[in-house]
């Protein structure tokens, strides 16, 4: 038996089309609410979709650079801390030398010389321990730091390591157990030169650390701007979408009622015949 054609009145057809459209809009609104995006694919808005992807891709590249910059900042801060500690030790060593020079007792001078040599050893230990993730900027000139600030590598900062151990500072062991004033005066002159070098090194490392910290903040802000710009292109306004969903659901309910009334009216008319 052949299927009988279904004849719909104009009112029923209009109500049915409106209901179908409303149901489709509800589905799209629910998708935006579940994903938090008003543009889920290029089909929704090709220009916005690909612009947002480009911004997010650059933000991802900058996040990788930001990690390297952060490591660079920590490396420099470690070096600065090491230099400051070495400065304190050199000052103590100078204090021992000055005290020994004012004391004519050779036994006391010899004891001071031993303490001097012990502090010199601690200085070397500090220089050796001032490393961050394998990079030690105050151990020797071969330990350099290079950090890229831009994706194409056109903007970089290179920090050359400066040997700040006893060898690099030209601080020898106490000669002749400091038995003569000449030996002590030589040590004092070397210590003064070392302090001057350390102040210069600390200033250089501190300046580079400040520059790198500024670039770290700049990169963080740029990443936030890029991600924010991408979000404005594709993110949905959840409050607006929630309100729209409520409106559409109400419209759907009214459409269902209208369709039911239209069908009942048609059936009532048919009963007259």
Task: Give an overview of the whole structure.
With 273 residues, this protein is an all-alpha fold. It folds into two domains: 10-36 and 236-270; 46-234, f41 fragment of flagellin, N-terminal domain, CATH 1.20.1330.10. It has five helices and two strands; from the N terminus they run H-H-H-E-E-H-H. The chain has helices spanning 10-35, 46-101, 106-129, 181-234, 238-270, and strands at 145-148, 156-159. Helix 1 packs antiparallel against helix 5 (238-270) and helix 2 (46-101) packs antiparallel against helix 3. 25% of the residues are buried. The mean pLDDT is 88.
Radius of gyration: 39 Å
Biggest β-sheet: count, sense, barrel? 2 strands, antiparallel
- Strand fraction: under 5%
CATH topology name of the largest domain, in short, is: f41 fragment of flagellin, N-terminal domain
The ordered string of helix (H) and strand (E) elements is HHHEEHH
The CATH C-level class name of the largest domain: Mainly Alpha
């Amino acid at each position: 038996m052949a299927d009988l054609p279904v004849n719909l009145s104009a009112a029923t057809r209009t109500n049915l089309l409106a209901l179908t459209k409303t149901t489709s809009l509800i589905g799209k609104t629910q998708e935006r609410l579940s994903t938090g995006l008003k543009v889920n694919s290029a089909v929704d808005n090709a220009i916005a979709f690909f612009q947002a992807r480009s911004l997010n891709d650059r933000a991802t590249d900058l996040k990788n650079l930001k990690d390297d910059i952060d490591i660079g900042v920590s490396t420099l801060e470690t070096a600065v801390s090491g230099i400051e500690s070495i400065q304190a030790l050199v000052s103590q060593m100078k204090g021992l030398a000055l005290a020994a020079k004012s004391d004519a007792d050779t036994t006391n001078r010899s004891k001071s010389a031993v303490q001097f040599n012990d502090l010199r050893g601690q200085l070397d230990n500090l220089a050796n321990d001032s490393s961050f993730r394998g990079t030690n900027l105050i151990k020797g000139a071969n330990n350099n730091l290079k950090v890229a600030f831009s994706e194409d590598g056109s903007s970089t900062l290179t920090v050359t390591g400066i040997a700040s151990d006893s060898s690099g500072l030209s601080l020898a062991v106490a000669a002749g157990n400091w038995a003569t004033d000449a030996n002590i005066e030589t040590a004092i002159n070397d210590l003064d030169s070392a302090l001057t070098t350390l102040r210069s090194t600390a200033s250089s490392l501190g300046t580079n650390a400040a520059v790198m910290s500024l670039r770290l903040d700049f990169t963080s802000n740029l990443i936030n701007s890029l991600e924010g710009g991408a979000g404005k292109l594709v993110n949905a306004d959840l409050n607006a979408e929630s309100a729209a969903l409520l409106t559409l659901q109400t419209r759907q309910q009214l459409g269902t009622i209208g369709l039911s009334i239209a069908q009942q009216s048609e059936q009532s008319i048919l009963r007259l015949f």
